[in-house]
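forwarding from the other thread:

> can someone predict this with MGD?

sure thing
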Amino acid sequence: MTMTDTHCPYCSLQCGMRLAAPAAGAAAQVLERPEFPVNRGALCGKGQSAASLLDPGLRLTTPLVRERRGGELRAASWDLALDRVAAGLKAVGERYGREAVAVFGGGGLTNEKGYLLGKFARVVLRTPNIDYNGRFCMSSAAAAHKAAFGLDRGLPFPLTDIARADCVILVGGNPAETMPPALRYFRELRERGGTLIVVDPRRTRTAEQADLHLQPVPGTDLALALGLLHLAIADRRLDADFIAERTSGFEPARSAAMAHWPERVERLTGIAVSQLRSALDLFAGAEKAIVLTARGPEQQSKGTDTVGAWINLCLALGKAGREGSGYGCLTGQGNGQGGREHGQKADQLPGYRSIVDPAARAHIARVWGVDEAGLPGPGRSAYELLDTLGTEGGARAMLLMGSNPVVSAPRAAHVTERLRALDFLAVSDVVLSETAQLADVVLPAAQWAEETGTLTNLEGRVILRQAALSAPEGVRTDLAVLHGLAARLGTPKGFPADPEEVFEELRRASAGGQADYAGISYDRIRAEDGVFWPCPTGAHPGTPRLFLDRFATPDGRARFVPVSYRPAAEEPDAEYPLYLTTGRVLAQYQSGAQTRRVPELNRAAPGPFVELHPQLAERLGVAEGQSLAVTSRRGRAVAPARVTDTVRPDTVFMPFHWGGAGRANSLTNPALDPTSRMPEFKVCAVRVERVR
Ligand SMILES: Nc1nc2c(c(=O)[nH]1)N[C@H]1C(S)=C(S)[C@@H](COP(=O)(O)OP(=O)(O)OC[C@H]3O[C@@H](n4cnc5c(=O)[nH]c(N)nc54)[C@H](O)[C@@H]3O)O[C@H]1N2
Ligand SMILES: Nc1nc2c(c(=O)[nH]1)N[C@H]1C(S)=C(S)[C@@H](COP(=O)(O)OP(=O)(O)OC[C@H]3O[C@@H](n4cnc5c(=O)[nH]c(N)nc54)[C@H](O)[C@@H]3O)O[C@H]1N2
Ligand code: SF4
Ligand SMILES: [Mo]
C-alpha cells in the first residue's frame, strides 16, 4: 500500500486528499488530508468518489479509430491512432491552410498540458485557432479584472479573507453545491458576526445561509450594482480619499450610475428599494468588505460590464486594495486559473502575456527557439471557433482535449452539426464522451491520479497533483500524445512527455510576465502547500494578496469603467414568456462525462429536471415529476418538473449536466459578450408546456 498526497480531479478548490493505492488490481481509496489548508480534509461527494472512475471497466483503455466517415469506431494501436491524427491535421492544413486546423482545450488540464497544447498549436500546427472551455467560464471576470486592476487573478486574496470579513456580497454563486468545503469560510464569517448577502434568482442552499437574499430577475445584476453605486453616491457614502489616491476615471462612472436611481433599479431587477438600501448599509458600513461573483452575473452577454459595475462599487467605497477588502471571482474548473495563463486562450501567450505585444512575442519565441515572425496572432474565441467549423473560412480539422462541447456549448445542436461537418476530429478523453463519439480518432487519456502536474487553484495558489498509481495498459498521458504528434509532424524536440521538464520550461516562459511562475518548483510546492503567483524568484515568498500598495496598471491606480444597464440579448415575449437560467447540482460535474459514470453520484442526481415555481406550475397545470417540454428559439428539451418555491415565478432553471433529450444547452442563447466573448448561458426566453 502506498500513500500519496494529491488533489481532487474536479473543481477549482483543488481540495487536498490522500490516495491509498494498494497492490496491483485492488481499487485506490480516497482518504482525508487534514493538513492541506484550503479544505482541511473536507471533501464533497465528487471528491470522495473520484477514484471510482480509475476502474478500467468504466473508462477508455484503447485508442479508437474510424476508418471512414459513417463507419464505426474500432480499437486500434497507439501508433496507428497517432499516425491517423497527424495525417488528418496535416492533410487539412495542406489543403485549406494552417488556420483551418484548430485546437480546443480545457480548464481542467494541468498547467503543463495547457502550456504544451498552446505551444503545439503555435509551433507545430502554426495556427492562430486555439481556444478552450474557460471562455465559457472565467472570461468575463478576467476581462473586467484586467480593465480595472491591470491583472487577472480570480481571487486577489486567500479564501481565509472571506472568513475574516465583516460583509461579503456573493453574486450568482452557489458554493453549497459547487464547492461545499469552501462554505466553511462563509460560515466562519457569520459566526464572527459578519454578514453574508447572496444575489441569486433562486433561493439556493447557499442563499438559505445568507443574512440577506436578493432575488433578481435573471440578467439584471448590472442594474443592481449600478443602483447600489447610485445610492452610495446619493447618501454620500463614498471613500473620497481612496478615490483620489488609488483610482482613476471616477467621474464618467459616477455620471453613468446617476441614471440608475433606486425605483428604476427596482423595476428592472424586481428587488425592492428597501432591500437595496439594506444591502448598501451592510456593505458600506463594513470595515472589511468583499464582493465575489461567480457564473450567475458573468455568463451573460454583458458579463464584463456587470463585473465592472461591481468593481466600481468596491472602488467607490474604498473596499479594494487593502487587506481584508476587495473584489474576487470564484473560478470554476480545476485549473480554471492556470488554464488561462499559459497560452490555451486565443489571444494569450504563457505568463499571461498578450499575443499581440511585440515584447511578449519576442520573449516567448526565444524560449521556444522559433522565429517571432512565425508565431501566429490571435485566433477565434471558443464559440466563434465552434460556430464556424466546416464552413468557408472556418476550421476543417480539430484536436480537442478536455472538453465535451456537445453537452456544454451553447446552442448545442448547432455546435454538434458543426462538429459533424469537420473533415477530421481527434478527441483525447478519459471516457467516450458525447463529443468523442463524433471523432475520427479517440485517444484514451491517463487520469489525474496516474500523472503528475500542477494546477492553480481559485486563490492563485499553484498546487501539485502527484501521481499515485500507474495508468492501465493502453492509456497514455496527454503530454505523451502531444510528444508523439509533434514528432510525427516534424518537431521532435521541445515537447517532452515528462511533466516536470515541461514545468521547468513553463517557469522560464512565464518569467517576467504577470503570472510569473519562475520561482515556483515542484519541490517548493510540496514543502509549502502551494505557492501563490506571482513568484519571480526562488527566494520570493509568493503573493497571497495582490494590490495592497498599487494596482497592476501603468500608473498603479485602479480604473473605474463607465457602464450602463442594457437588457439581456433575449427577453421574454408573448411566444417565449419565461426566463430560463441554467447551472449546476452538487453531485454532477460539468457535462457529466465523468460523474454520470460514477454510480453513487448518478444515484444522487440521476437526470435533468426543470425547476419551476408552484404558481407557474398551477398556471400551466403541471404536477411534480410531470414531463415538460421547454422550447426556445434554438431548440427543445424535455425533462421532468421539479416544483419548488425557491425559484422566481417568472423563471425556470435547468442544470446542464446531461446530453440527449434533457440537454439544457439545446435551448441556450449563444449571444456573446462583446469583450470577453462569453455566451449568455444564464438568460434566455423559453416556453414551457406539458408533454402528453
Ligand atoms: N457540483 C458541481 N460543482 C462545480 C461544477 C459542477 O459542474 N458541479 N463546476 C465547476 C465550475 S467549472 C464552475 S464555473 C463553478 C460554477 O459555480 P457557480 O457559479 O456557483 O455555479 P452555477 O450553478 O453555474 O451558478 C451559480 C448560481 O447562479 C445563479 N444564477 C442564474 N442566473 C443568474 C443571474 O442572472 N444572476 C445571478 N446573480 N445569479 C444567477 C443560479 O441560480 C446558480 O445558483 O462550479 C464548479 N464546481
Ligand atoms: N447551460 C450551461 N452551459 C454551460 C455552463 C452553464 O453554467 N450553463 N457552464 C460552462 C462552464 S463554466 C464550463 S467550465 C463548461 C464546461 O464544460 P466542458 O468543457 O464540457 O467540461 P467537462 O465536462 O469538464 O469536460 C471535460 C472533458 O474532458 C475529459 N477530461 C477530464 N480530464 C481530462 C484530462 O486530463 N485529459 C483529457 N484529455 N480529458 C479529460 C472529461 O472526461 C470530459 O469529457 O460548461 C459550460 N457550459
Ligand atoms: S469541492 Fe471541488 S475540489 Fe473539493 S472535493 Fe468537491 S469537487 Fe473536489
Ligand atoms: Mo466553469
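DSSP finds 23 helices and 30 strands in the chain. thats all i got for now
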